[in-house]
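User: Please look over both lines:
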Amino acid sequence: MVGEEAQFVIATHSPILLAFPGAQILQFQDGAIREVKYNELEHVNLTRDFLANPDAFLRYL
């Protein structure tokens, strides 16, 4: 099966899965579908901010 390609449709909020090389990321919002860049995603930025400074988030728990 050399040279064959596969296509998957996955619904996720996982920044790890969203980072898959070559992934096309589509966002469904307000009845519209648009392609977005990885770094534009709220889930990615929230995870990045949490990992950079967990204490800033954990103090609210």
About this structure: The chain has a mean pLDDT of 89. Residues 15-58 form one domain. The radius of gyration is 15 Å. The helical segments are 15-18, 42-52, 54-58.
